[in-house]
Amino acid sequence: PTFGSEPGMSFFVNVMTIFDDGNGPGLYAGGWFITAGGVPANHIARWDGSRWTPLGDGLSAPVEAMAVFDDGSGPALFAGGDFLAAGGQGVNHIARWDGADWTALADGTGGRVLALAVFEDANGPALYAAGDFLTAGGNPASRIARWDGSGWSALGSGLNARVESLIVFDDGNGAALY
């Protein structure tokens, strides 16, 4: 009942995050659903405290990960998953929502994005994407890559298996991406 009247979400919610799209903070949900509160919302929707709203035309397949990151154009919501289109345009598994429109991140990734995290390394803040891919931006990137707002870069030789989770943690020796 907290999220409005029946029927609720039409299928699974995989991930949620909070983002202020300029209209105040909202709770964003992503997953396998195609309706939210009876409203068409292809795999992603915003809850404002009283109703669900879609994010444009939504995404073509399930959302697996979300993060808020300022890539130099202002804070935006980034979604990753199994989708190839967002708002009707090709995005290849990862897309940026600015509160009004979806945009691609260069050529995206060559497979599913299952985890996103924001981490500031020696080169500055960046969005890290991980999952089931071997390319990012059309270049080799074995299951993990760094987006700096203008392009993708690989992290060394990458990883040898699918990555399903990322987190930043300070173990007393400084923050690190795990």
Structure description:
The protein has 178 residues and is mainly β. The chain is built from no helices and 20 strands. The strands form 7 sheets. A 4-stranded antiparallel beta sheet has the order 1-2-5-6, with no helix packed on it. The protein has a 4-stranded antiparallel beta sheet with strand order 7-8-11-12, with no helix packed on it. It is globular, with a radius of gyration of 16 Å. The mean pLDDT is 93.
Low-confidence stretches: none
Main beta-sheet strand count, sense and barrel state: 4 strands, antiparallel
Instruction: Quote the beta fraction.
Output: over 45%
Q: How far from one another are the termini?
A: 36 Å
Count the strands? 20
**Gross geometry:** globular
List keywords for this structure.
178 residues; 20 strands
Topology of this protein?
Layout: E1 13-20, E2 25-31, E3 35-36, E4 39-40, E5 44-47, E6 52-54, E7 63-70, E8 75-81, E9 85-86, E10 89-90, E11 94-97, E12 102-104, E13 113-121, E14 124-131, E15 135-136, E16 139-140, E17 144-147, E18 152-154, E19 168-170, E20 175-177
Question: How is this structure best summarized?
Answer:
By secondary structure, this protein is mostly beta strands. The protein has no helices and 20 strands.
